[in-house]
C-alpha cells in the first residue's frame, strides 16, 4: 500500500515534466522553442512539409522503441512509417490502488494507415495470495485496429499462380507477416486462442496453457518496461544513453572471456614449464643412477678378482 502511495505521489510530480516533453516534441506552446528545419530545408518550406507527429524530433518514438531491447526485434521495416505518426505513449493505473493493473496508451496523429487515434493495451493483474507481494498478469486486452483499405502492414498481398491448363487468372490474397502491430496489439488470456504465428514455432506436444502463460508473461514484461523505464526516460532511450549498461555488460563479458583465455594460456605455459622441469629432473636422476650402478659394478669385479687370487688353488689331477 505504501509503495502504491509513493508511486501515485511521484507520478503526479512527474506528470508536468512528461507534458512539457510532449509539447517540446510537438513544438507547440513552449516559449522560445521551435523546431529546426531539416538539412537542406528552408524555414519557409518547413511549414509546408509533410506532417509528422513529433516535428521537433522526427521519428522520436520510433527510435525510442527501436533502441529498447524489449521492442527492437518486434519492429519490422514496414512498421516504421506507421510509428512515425506516434505522438506520445502514456500509462495509467486501472484503479487508485494500482493492484488491478494498468493500461498503456499509444497516441497517434491522424494518419493514412488506420482510423484509430489511440491504441490501448490493458494489463489485468492480481495478487496470487495475501502472503505474496507480487502481481501476476491474468489476461491482456488490446484495442482492435481499424485499418484503412490496403494499408494493413500486418499482411502482405501475394499472387497465387493457377494451373495453366485451367486458364485461370492468378489469384491475389493476403497472408500474415511479422509486425509489431500484430504481436503487440493482441488479446491474450486463458479464454483466448493461441495466435497462429506462435503455434508454428511450438512443439505439438506442448500444453497450450503453458504456451499462453509464456506469451502473457513476456507481454507483461514489455508493458512494465514501457511504464517504468522506457516512457519516463524516453529521451535517454532516443540518444542511446539508456543502452550503455547493456553495452558495458557485453564489454565486461568480452573482457572477462579474454582474461579467462589469457589465464588459461598462462596456466598451460606454467604446466609445460613444470612438465619440462620434471622431465629434466627425471633424466638427471636416471643418469646419476646409471653412473652409480656402473661404478659399483666395476668395484665389485675388481674386488672379486683380488679375492679369487687369494683362495687356495684346487687341482683336478687327483693328487
UniProtKB/TrEMBL annotation:
Write out the ranges of the annotated region (Disordered).
Answer: 31-51, 242-319
Q: What is the lineage of its organism?
A: Eukaryota, Sar, Alveolata, Dinophyceae, Suessiales
Name of the protein in its database record = Nucleosome assembly protein
Name the family the entry cites: Belongs to the nucleosome assembly protein (NAP) family.
Q: What do the Gene Ontology cellular component annotations say?
A: nucleus
Residue ranges, compositional bias (Acidic residues): 242-272
Start-end of Low complexity biased regions: 35-51
BP terms from Gene Ontology:
nucleosome assembly
UniProt biased composition (Polar residues):
303-319
